[in-house]
Write a structure and sequence with these properties.
alpha+beta, 2 domains, 6-stranded antiparallel β-sheet, elongated
């Protein structure tokens, strides 16, 4: 046998080589332990005991309970900010509509009384409407006219016969054939039975009212015009004057609801840096923009302690309007628990001359010392501080 053949016999072939088991190679334990599951094998995983799971669940519950107050506070802050954003947006929308239509348009705040009904009461707003003055009415046909007389219908109006009419006023004689639509536009029920009228499309506006099927002028800066004789379709069809009737603002569209859990706190809302003009308005507050963008008229009611009533006030804005947006549960509470003392509340302010709308944070003065409960003077001083801060931010452009 050659040396080459001998070497070939001594070398094992691949097919005859023994392939070792990887598990056997890696398992270096003693032979007695090899029948047991490997500690790092799948069969070696150990589950949680019931006690361990209960401990983990208890820790998770404690964490949730600890974070709930902060979570609720964060949600409340978010809601108040959204409410102030919506209110600001509604003001801007009304201002834009007034410019587009050429007629006054604004917001109608529906007021809700909080707590006992004892006057003057505490009020808030959670719902608003767009409101506008409807187009003027000048009759159903061109050249429609009206004649002003005393109650008997045949004398020129004077201040003497004005006072002899019950109610005081002068009679407006509208020829039915050309003014029939007037009875539909102006109802018999208050407060929409009142209106303003301008004669000959010029001059001052005179207040008017409908009582039953009769219409009256109830006053004015001057005597209403009374020339041209009495109207007669056959003998004097040009008697009287052409006219424009301006009706009261009307709500339009669907209500605009603030987010649940938010409201406009009317206790601290009003004009200027200290006014609380809207705190006791039991029906509505109406803010109108003129077509040129300024705040033209504000209508509201406020408690008159002397006469024990709520007179209606309708005037040009007396200063910047401030509305405090906060949480309903804080409306009417003592000062230290109120929205005015809550740094999460927000001011929405409307500039009187420009109609600019800004939103600013409420900044309660932590150094201000007041009694518990706070006196009226302390509450007024505290409100002034908060308003002055809001006005300062308004000048800077707001947040």
């Amino acid at each position: 046998m050659s040396l080459h053949s001998k070497n070939l016999q001594q070398q094992p072939t691949r097919s005859s080589a023994r392939v070792s088991d990887p598990a056997e190679t890696l398992d270096r334990r003693s032979p007695g332990d090899r029948g047991r599951p490997a500690p790092n094998g799948r069969a070696g995983l150990r589950g949680f005991t019931l006690m361990e799971m209960l401990i983990v669940i208890a820790i998770m519950l404690l964490l949730v309970i600890a974070t709930l107050p902060r979570l609720k506070q964060s949600m409340d802050e978010s809601k108040v900010r959204e409410a102030s954003r919506q209110l600001s947006s509604h003001f801007s929308r009304a201002k834009a509509r007034a410019a587009a239509t050429g007629r006054p348009c604004g917001l109608w705040f529906v007021t809700e009384q909080i707590g006992p009904a004892t006057p003057p009461g505490t009020f808030q707003t959670t719902e608003l409407y767009l409101a506008e003055i409807p187009p003027p009415y000048s009759g159903d046909v061109q050249e429609a006219r009206v004649v002003v007389t005393d109650s008997s219908g045949n004398q020129a109006p004077t201040w003497t016969n004005f006072n002899n009419i019950n109610p005081p006023g002068w009679l407006l004689n509208f020829p039915p054939a050309s003014n029939a639509g007037l009875f539909t536009l102006i109802p018999q029920t208050a407060p929409n039975n009142t209106f303003f009228i301008r004669f000959d499309h010029k001059g001052p506006l005179f207040p008017g009212i409908r009582i039953g099927n009769l219409f009256y002028v109830t006053g004015g800066p001057t005597l209403p015009p009374h020339g041209n004789g009495l109207y007669d379709a056959n003998t004097n069809p040009s008697a009287g004057y052409q006219y424009e009737i301006i009706r009261l603002p009307q709500r339009i569209g669907a209500p605009l609801a603030l987010p649940r859990g938010t409201s406009v706190d009317l206790t601290y809302s009003g004009f200027g840096n200290s006014g609380t003009d809207f705190y006791s308005s039991p029906n509505q507050i109406l803010v109108l923009f003129t077509p040129d963008g300024r705040v033209g008229n504000v209508t509201y009611q406020t408690w008159n302690a002397t006469n024990s009533n709520y007179p209606i006030i309708s005037n040009d804005a007396a200063g910047t309007l401030h509305f405090l947006v906060g949480r309903p549960e804080k409306v009417g509470l003592p000062l230290n628990q109120s929205n005015l003392n809550d740094n999460n509340a927000l001011w929405v302010s409307v500039g009187r001359l420009t109609g600019s709308v800004t939103t600013t944070e409420n900044a309660p003065n932590i150094d201000f010392v007041f009694s518990n409960p706070a006196t009226a003077a302390e509450q007024q001083a505290y409100l002034t501080i908060a308003r002055e801060y809001a006005i300062t931010q308004d000048v800077k452009g707001g947040h």
